[in-house]
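From the shared-data thread, chain only:
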Amino acid sequence: DPYIRKSHMVTLENVKQVVQENAHSKDYAIVVICHDGKESLTAAEMISSEDYINVVVLEDGADQLGSQKFL
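Structure, as tokens:
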């Protein structure tokens, strides 16, 4: 199970299908996260190519979160 509520674990092969099934509109907020940020960038480009306009990528991926200092 995903660790973030309302999240979905996807692959590049099924990312478009999962978004189409779960995004309520083309401006639905979509955050794409992978380990290093590279695959999520590809996934975000795929999603954006389907006219979704509110797609963001966690820069440098989830691995970077462990080294971040939060206030």
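The chain is about 25% helix and 10% strand.
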